[in-house]
Amino acid sequence: MLKLFWPAIILTTISLLIDFKNVSEKMIFLILTLTGIIGASYTGYFFQHYFLALVPPLAILAIPKKQITVFIPIIITSLLLYSWSNISNRWKKDLLYIPDHSKIIAAQIKGLGGGQLFVASGVHATYIYLNQLSPTAYVQPVNYIDPFFSKNFSVDIQRVLKEIEAVPFIQWCNPIPLENAKGNESINQEFISPLQLMVKEKYQKLQTELEECSLYKKTYLK
């Protein structure tokens, strides 16, 4: 969160310290900021887009009500530094070529004749490349693979397993191979144990271009 919002947080702090007017109004936006932080961090995951709700209250708080000339160059300098940091990070990603896992997996499935995919682990954008909807009611794999998510959102694991029975392809992109996932506390064992059994009995493991990605193709059609 600090990496994403440090300019706004710094400017908000300065604004609050130098401008003591409209305290009740500022308290409202401080409460909105705090509730936004609680809502974004509740899941235990801290993806940047979870914190977009902080942008409006922080942006309003960052601007002092009274005119202070010295504040303008501080704002400009902070924004320039922040922008350069993000641009340079993007350049690094492009120059180092971080592969698009979803695009690669989708291309492999199309090369095998196509078919419905189930993303058991990894980026679910593969559905988009294949122009498909998720075969389950839960699009994001974290909903059923993560024990924290699964418990707090009351995910019906048996329903997920029922919905993927006829799926010809299963994607598994994870540092932990599917075959070694049993007993790992970071993975929902209620989901992984029957998935492993299903894959072992009905699927063939295929090689992919990606070190941490496996694609499973159904061989048992019933």
From TrEMBL:
The chain crosses the membrane at residues 27-47, 68-85. Keywords: Membrane, Transmembrane, Transmembrane helix. The keyword Membrane applies. This is Uncharacterized protein.
